[in-house]
């Protein structure tokens, strides 16, 4: 099969591609929002601890399984235990669902980048601009299809000539842009309605300082679950992507170093995202501007950029270009995971597989985009929120399937295969697996319990029990 002939050229190519998958749009809006909502520095401390324990465990498992089996999700789980093939199918379905809407979000971001580049930044700051855009029956569809087309073209060109080649220049540029905007945010200042001068440095301290006011056991548990949820989605685990990327890793690559580098890159970008967004919003909008979801990126931030004056246009361009890179790198990994599985299942070539999938997802992206206009629906989700087509796909894949898959995979590795299945792969070339004892404890005892609680919380069952 062609897939077995595809490999990343080396450790750097793998790390940049895997980090690109992990650094998605969620790092740019969800991480800063949660940090602001959940006690600033308190959230950061909890998150960083979880990165080194919980996130490390799931990321290590996925990558090691991929390289050891040399297969994507369905084939990997079937090879491990034929009776567990269903888990592989379930894992495969997650990117299948995510791909229906990821290009839609990418299209929204591309639209805003075009608006800022064309000198129409003031229009983007209008109250109803975002709503008017997504409810249009034409414009959002065009941008979604454009984004989907670029994604498909990169995956069409293969692992080294497509994914790795793009990641090698896109990820360093993304990191530089994030650092530049973060540093600029610290220099901001503004006189508020009360005549007080608010600075970006004050916003940064607000971001870093642990807020323990009103902290209860229940509140702490909620912050813990929020941090786990963010980490879970941020690292692209339990959706087959890292298994697929792991299958492209050459035998001589040191997986221990690779996992550490991916953790550092992803966590660093998430931290810098908070550093570039929270101080800026704090200066011009106070804590009220820290809205969740699209409202932060597409409503609050354009108003902040407008308040910056002339510099706001330049900062807006840099920010949305950064967001395009983050979204594109993740979108590529989602489509690659689907492509790799389909190549194994149907024994088809990469180019033929990508062409068929492109037609399917161009149509799916158009339908999801029109979910805010032509196909508008309102559905009450089990977690109590009201959602449209995009929200439904996101809820099913992220809030239901991914925690459930992670729960089953920890049981499979920790108790059916035993942790040595992964540990042996991590020590394949004689490397020292320094966190071996931690991995054993996490995969067998801690992670299954945490994933079970996260599943109950994300599906709304925990709140009903409480």
Automatic annotation (TrEMBL):
It is a multi-pass membrane protein. The keyword Membrane applies. It is found in: Membrane. It comes from the Bacteria. It holds the Pfam family SNF. The keyword Transport applies. Keywords: Membrane, Transmembrane, Transmembrane helix, Transport. The chain crosses the membrane at residues 12-29, 41-65, 86-109, 129-157, 169-187, 220-243, 264-284, 304-332, 353-375, 395-417, 438-456. This is Sodium-dependent transporter. It comes from Agathobaculum hominis.
């Amino acid at each position: 099969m062609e897939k077995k002939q595809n490999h990343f050229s080396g450790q750097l190519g793998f790390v940049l591609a895997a980090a690109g998958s992990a650094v998605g749009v969620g790092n740019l809006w969800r991480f800063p929002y949660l940090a602001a909502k959940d006690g600033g520095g308190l959230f950061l401390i909890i998150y960083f601890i979880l990165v080194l324990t919980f996130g490390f465990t799931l990321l290590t498992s996925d990558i090691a399984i991929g390289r050891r089996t040399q297969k994507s999700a369905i084939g990997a789980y079937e090879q491990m235990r034929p009776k567990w093939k269903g888990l592989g199918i379930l894992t495969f379905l997650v990117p299948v669902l995510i791909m229906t809407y990821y290009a839609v979000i990418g299209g929204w971001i591309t639209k805003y980048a075009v608006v800022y580049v064309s000198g129409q930044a003031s229009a983007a700051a209008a109250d109803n601009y975002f709503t008017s855009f997504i409810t249009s029956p034409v414009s959002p569809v065009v941008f979604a299809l454009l984004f989907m087309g670029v994604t498909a073209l990169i995956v069409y060109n293969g692992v080294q000539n497509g994914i790795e080649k793009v990641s090698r220049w896109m990820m360093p540029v993304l990191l530089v842009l994030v650092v530049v905007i973060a540093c600029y945010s610290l220099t901001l200042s503004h006189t508020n309605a009360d005549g007080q001068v608010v600075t970006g440095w004050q916003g940064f301290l607000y971001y870093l300082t642990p807020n323990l006011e009103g902290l209860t056991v229940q509140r702490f548990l909620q912050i813990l679950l929020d941090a786990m949820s963010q980490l879970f989605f941020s690292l692209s685990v339990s959706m087959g992507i890292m298994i697929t990327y792991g299958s492209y890793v050459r035998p001589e690559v040191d997986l221990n170093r690779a996992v550490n580098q991916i953790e550092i890159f992803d966590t660093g970008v998430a931290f810098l995202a908070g550093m570039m967004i929270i101080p800026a919003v704090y200066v011009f909008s106070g804590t009220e501007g820290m809205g969740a979801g699209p409202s932060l990126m597409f409503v609050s931030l354009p108003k902040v950029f407008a308040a910056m004056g002339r510099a706001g246009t330049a900062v807006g361009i840099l920010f949305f270009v950064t967001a395009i890179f983050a979204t594109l790198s993740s979108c590529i990994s989602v489509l690659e995971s689907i492509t790799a599985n389909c190549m194994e299942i149907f024994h088809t070539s990469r180019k033929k597989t990508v062409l068929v999938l492109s037609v399917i997802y161009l149509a799916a992206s158009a339908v999801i985009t029109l979910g805010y206009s032509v196909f508008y629906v309102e559905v009450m989700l089990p977690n109590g929120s009201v959602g449209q087509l995009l929200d439904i796909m996101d809820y099913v894949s992220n809030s239901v399937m991914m925690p459930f898959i992670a729960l089953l995979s920890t049981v499979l590795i920790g108790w059916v295969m035993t942790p040595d299945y992964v540990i042996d792969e991590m020590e394949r070339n004689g490397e020292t697996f320094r966190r071996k004892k931690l991995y054993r404890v996490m995969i067998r005892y801690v992670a299954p319990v945490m994933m079970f609680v996260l599943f109950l919380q994300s599906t709304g069952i925990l709140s009903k029990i409480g």
